[in-house]
Specification:
By secondary structure, the chain is mainly α. Helices cover 81% and strands 0% of the residues. It has ten helices and no strands.
């Protein structure tokens, strides 16, 4: 109960440092999950709808990448972007931008894999129809995208949840610097390691509230779109 009380006290206190940490967390999670969806969803749809030589090997590699350890990704990017690394001149080490890049590397394979699984059945159902109508590849892709749009909402929510809850890679490449790269998960880890368990638990509750709020908004948008589509189909049938 102490952690819950402290969490709500922190929310109501309008603490500038906490607000800054929450803003950085949301910025990193929203941008990285959106970029991962933009890259991973088309790749997953292509894998689901297209048959090509070496597809099984590509899927095996993709399944392997879905389990990339965050710490390994963080160390690799740290080496590449540190002062002595090949990308050191970009000065991205210990920045939110590099944290976003790390998240994209981690989440994009997951988005692609989940999209491929979700779109496989709709694509199989559309193949015969597309062949009969002599639809070109671009139109088939757009049709598969349309048919899988609700699944993609679920995929994005998973990607966002993965981005907002990750700690290993972002701590390594971001450095957990106050007023710059500190996010909710790294703050929770820091407070736990320093023995401030109640404060860490309170921050964890706030993180859960943030995740729930984003999921609720997305669910309401999805429900509204689904209801509008049913209403439109009903009008077309009545007409």
């Amino acid at each position: 109960m102490g952690a819950i009380t402290k969490a709500f006290n922190l929310i109501l206190s309008n603490n500038p440092t906490l607000n800054e940490i929450i803003f950085t967390t949301l910025k990193m999670a929203l941008i990285s999950s959106a970029l991962s969806l933009l890259i991973g969803a088309p790749a997953g749809l292509i894998l689901a709808c297209k048959d090509f030589k070496g597809k099984k090997a590509v899927l095996v590699i993709l399944r392997t990448l879905m389990g990339l350890p965050p710490v390994v990704v963080g160390i690799v990017l740290y080496v590449l972007f540190s002062g002595t690394g090949i990308f050191g001149r970009l000065n991205l080490i210990f920045t939110v931008e590099l944290m976003i890049i790390a998240q994209v590397f981690l989440i994009t394979p997951i988005v692609a894999g989940l999209t491929e699984t979700a779109a496989k059945q709709p694509c199989m159902m559309m193949k015969e129809t597309a062949k009969g109508l002599k639809m070109k590849g671009g139109k088939v892709f757009l049709l598969s995208l349309s048919e899988s749009r609700y699944q993609l909402v679920a995929v994005y929510l998973f990607a966002f949840a993965r981005a907002i809850s990750e700690v290993g890679a972002v701590q390594i490449v971001g450095g957990n610097i106050l007023h710059k790269t500190r996010v909710m998960t790294t703050t929770i880890a820091l407070n736990y390691n320093t023995g401030q368990f109640t404060y860490a638990a309170a921050l964890g509750i706030i993180l859960l509230i943030l995740t729930f709020a984003i999921n609720l908004i997305a669910a309401l948008i999805q429900f509204s779109a689904s209801r509008a589509q049913r209403r439109r189909r009903g009008n077309e049938n009545n007409g």
